[in-house]
């Protein structure tokens, strides 16, 4: 029989082992980003606020949630319900209690990357300074919503390129910043941020609002607020999280539901699909059992589906809003004339941007024997020449106009094609100079 002190020693070892296993359970962390500003883009900040309310309700503490949004919607002069943001026509306020970690000009790609990498020194004195302090036992959830284009997503004053995002993801993996990570991206051509770039062996599961070639869609037009309240993919996954028992629903099931209800674009999945099939939504969005889900009735589900029939491609949102505002105004009113003028200017801007990018494509072939103008302006190609694309689009941003404008973003696939067919970036930049320098850098109303 072993002496008593041996049993005491064994018991102590067992206790320490138990403590170690408890410590290894890990935490939930989240980064929520709305990359736009301006009242026409109400829906992006509304999406992020709704996402925050889901995570907060499910028990993820504010200390573990980083929110980036310009914060110019709730108190915007155009908002008839000051201090309130909703994400559904009959929705409750989702703005209350949302952390203001990074707002205004601190909502940048550089700061987003520093947050993901947990770079506290770089964020010292910037916003709240909050970053991901996650480790190898923690799960991370990232939700981004805004405009996008081939191989990039937009921020208020800049863009984040797919190559830079995926480099950051690789660093997070090598630095053991997570156990498992889930990424949801709402933007046009959002699939191009991950397609062929996100490995399937680094414990990341991701879904996107659209494939690499198509628009995402806005929905829930509100005649009172005179704007779209949400984005189709985003409200679909969030309404699912509100209604389902996320402790039993898998990520793949949420993907299936979101894909089925997002009828205008192709919702995609990337990365470790096995993780998506085996992991529950609660492992990334939290699971506070004190807040039971409120299952959606078949009647409510049908009503939401009907309300979403007003979904409009993102590139058409601005014109759609102005057209709806115009239709609601009395004939011959001064306000109607102002809206008519704004709509005409918007259409003119759109045509000017399309014409400029088309002319850049033509100019790019003036010094080449082979002329692939018809090809590059009619057929989308998969982007692999990321360095050329970044170099040229940044040059356009400097010489021509803000590339985060949705009308510019909608045509950047042509620029990507110029790089894909083998034109060197200095040739395309010379074409940019030839087209844009005589005009000067154009500024457009947002």
Automatic annotation (TrEMBL):
This is Hemoglobinase. One of its GO terms (cellular component) is vacuole. This protease is used by the parasite for degradation of the host globin. It comes from the Eukaryota. The active site is at residues 147, 188. It holds the Pfam family Peptidase_C13. The lineage of its organism: Eukaryota, Metazoa, Spiralia, Gnathifera, Rotifera. GO terms for molecular function: cysteine-type endopeptidase activity. GO terms for biological process: proteolysis involved in protein catabolic process; vacuolar protein processing. Keywords: Hydrolase, Protease, Signal, Thiol protease. It comes from Rotaria magnacalcarata. It is an enzyme of class 3 (hydrolase). Residues 342-436 form the Legumain prodomain domain. Belongs to the peptidase C13 family. Its EC number is 3.4.22.34. It catalyses: Hydrolysis of proteins and small molecule substrates at -Asn-|-Xaa- bonds. InterPro entries: AE (IPR043577), Legum_prodom (IPR048501), Legumain_prodom_sf (IPR046427), Peptidase_C13 (IPR001096).
